[in-house]
Every structure is written in structure tokens, then in C-alpha cells.
Amino acid sequence: MSRHRPSIIALALSAALIGLRSPISGGAVQPAATPATTRAVSAVDSVGITVSDIDRAVAFFTSVLSFEQTSDVEVSGREYELLTGVFGARLRVVRLRLGDESIELMEFLAPRGRPVAADMRPNDRAFQHIAIIVSDMDAAYARLRQAGVEHASTGPQTLPAWNRAASGIKAFYFRDPDRHFLEILQFPPDKGAAKWHRTDRLFLGIDHTAIVVDDTERSLRFYRDSLRMDVAGGSENYDIEQERLNNVFGARLRITTLRASGGPGVELLEYLAPRDGRPAPADLRANDVAHWQTTLLTRTPERVFDLLPLRLFSLVSPIVVTPHPPHPGFQRAVLVRDPDGHAMRLAAGIGLP
Q: Which residues pair with 192 in a beta bridge?
């Protein structure tokens, strides 16, 4: 019997990644949550969205969806070029809050990017949305209709009783003024965190951001095994309600939710059918209006470079950047794209959990 020596890369990774990722477990869900002290990612801070007209976007999110503005800055300079991967970047960033969760709207004043593709579909792998929890689906849908939003679902859907993991959830997809996909969602009494059952206001907060992936197991190797986020739940959704929600005929999805110790979850959507979703454009840039980015808080963003030999992501920022002027949400950060091209900003900041 011949014996094989481990590769130099394998030996280097085993030494460099101790404490940064858990052992690959063949796709098995880990039974217990990862202790916060050993996490690579401690929390999901915010979800960023590039917009074409930030004043119009702020007006939409605040007046229609009840977000509150918490900061408004204009930034530029070499550090922001390196952070965003956009040469000559000058952008205005407005941070908005709904309940305990935040989003960042980003308008690139220079250079301007491309609009969202007119034919983008919910099963294309550039797809991302945020799920905004509401206390009353009928009232929330009426608010959106009054505001004249564009439908992305045929109408609000209630997921069927046979789907035990999702039964009773009410959901509706729509588009913002830049045609980004958004979702409103109402949990039934037996599902969702306690805070999602408040009745004192209509729009409550953000439960998760959802991203379309080609291969759940490959994505789990990045988010669960490398970044040490926890698998918090999963289901396989199909039938007429799911088709009408996603507006994808014959839709059958594997859905896997990942969470850190704080902030919204990251939901992986793998379309088992149809398998005709298009990959994200290879030349997608942060100034393109189709760009979303999720900020993941970590004490050591520099350690992401140890993971490069795994080939689970690509770098946007060539180095960890300490921006000047400072960003309102963090002190230093690096932007990467996951196996399907979704942008993740690994950031260290003040008050890190």
C-alpha cells in the first residue's frame, strides 16, 4: 500500500486556521451553537445596498417602511478605493435602522455604476434581499399598494401546513425604487423570535438577508466551517405558494439559515428546480446598483487571508483597510465575494460583541 504525504497547502492551512474554522463535518449540522469567544464572525452588523439616488431611496425606506436615519456621511480617498474595489470612489453612505437592525444605502457619486438588469430573476445568483418582519401582513401590503410599489410576488402568500418548518408564514416580495428585491414577512404564533410578535408597530425589524446559491454544501464550507456561523434551521419549500412568492414557475428550494451571536441571519436559497438561474456577473462592482454587501463583524479581519487556499471566495479589497475619514460602523475592514459572488465585508469596529 502506498502512502501519500499531505500537501504543503494542507499543512499550512491546518496550522493557520486553528481557531478560525471548525473541522469539515461532511455536511452534518453541528448540534450546538459555537461559543462566541471562538467565533470568526461574532455578529451580522448590517446589509448594504448600492442605490442610484440616495435621497429617493432614503425617502422610500423611511416614509414607506418606517426606517429611521442614524448617520449620513460622504467618503472618498485611497482607502475607500481599496475597500470597495472601485478606482476614484466617492460615495455617500446613509445608515438606517429598523428595530434592532440596520442597513446602509450607498450612492456612488463617482464613478457611476450600472442599473439593475431589467431581466434579473429571483433564482439568479446575484439575487439578495432583506426580510422585513411585519406585525400585520394585510396592513403592510395595503401600505405598499398605497405607495405604488412594484410587485415581485403575485401577492402575499401563506406557506402551507404540510411544510412544518415554514407552515403559517406569510410573505410577499416587492421591489424598491431601484428594483432591488425586498420581502415583508409575518411569523405565525409558533415561529420566530419573541420580538417578532410585537403589535405596537407595523414594521418591526430585519430577520435575515437571503442570497441565492448554486451549491448549499459549498456555501456551508465558507459560512459555517470557515466563518463559524451556526446553522439555525432549514427546510425544503415547493408548491404553488412558493412559486407565487418567488414568481418562479416550478420553484423548489433548499433553504438553510445561518446565524452569528447577533444581528440578522444569512439565508441560503438553493434552487433545486428550476436550475436555470444565471451566475452573478463576473464584472459586478460595488458601484453597480445590483451590488449588495453584508457586513460581518470579526475581531481579526486579517485572518481571512489564511483562507485563500481553500478557494471559497475571492478578494475585492487587496488588503485590510483602515479608512480615513472613518466609517461610522467600523475601524478596519476587507471586502470579499463568496462562492457565488455575494459581497461580504469582514469588519472590526468599536463595541464589537
A: none
